[in-house]
Amino acid sequence: MSLTLTTPYTEAPAPALAPRELETLRHIASGCTYLQAARQMGLSRHTVDAYLRRIRAKLDINTTAELTRLAISLGL
């Protein structure tokens, strides 16, 4: 399942997030550290970091607070 979003500043659709990116976003927004999210997902901390870098790049998001706000707005 991929998700297409609109960015908060434009009506243009943002790039879709892959299922693992959404899962990573959900874990981080729930308060998990990168290491905790990695363990729950069966991944390395570096892979979780890579997913979050991709999410930030796709959606032009710079902080964890912005990621959390996005997750909340998506109901994750």
List the helices and strands and how they pair.
Blueprint: E1 3-6, E2 13-17, H1 19-29, H2 34-41, H3 45-59, H4 64-73
Antiparallel strand pairs: 1-2
Helix pairs in contact: 1-2, 1-3, 1-4, 2-3
Describe the structure.
The chain has 76 residues and is mostly helical. The chain contains four helices and two strands. It has helices at 19-29, 34-41, 45-59, 64-73; strands at residues 3-6, 13-17. Strands 1-2 form a two-stranded antiparallel ribbon. A hairpin with a 6-residue loop joins strand 1 (3-6) and strand 2 (13-17). Helix 1 (19-29) crosses helix 3 and helix 1 (19-29) packs across helix 4. The longest helix has 15 residues, at 45-59. The radius of gyration is 12 Å and the shape is globular. Mean pLDDT is 82; it is low at 9-14.
List low-pLDDT spans: 9-14
> Would you count the extended β strands for me?
2
> Mean pLDDT score, rounded?
82
Approximate helicity band: 55-70%
Structural class computed from helices and strand pairing: mainly alpha
> How much of the sequence is in beta strands?
5-15%
What is the string of helix and strand elements?
EEHHHH
Shape: globular
Computed over alpha carbons, the radius of gyration is 12 Å
- Let me know the largest β-sheet: 2 strands, antiparallel
* Cα separation of the termini: 14 Å
Strand order of the largest sheet: 1-2
Give the count of helical stretches: 4
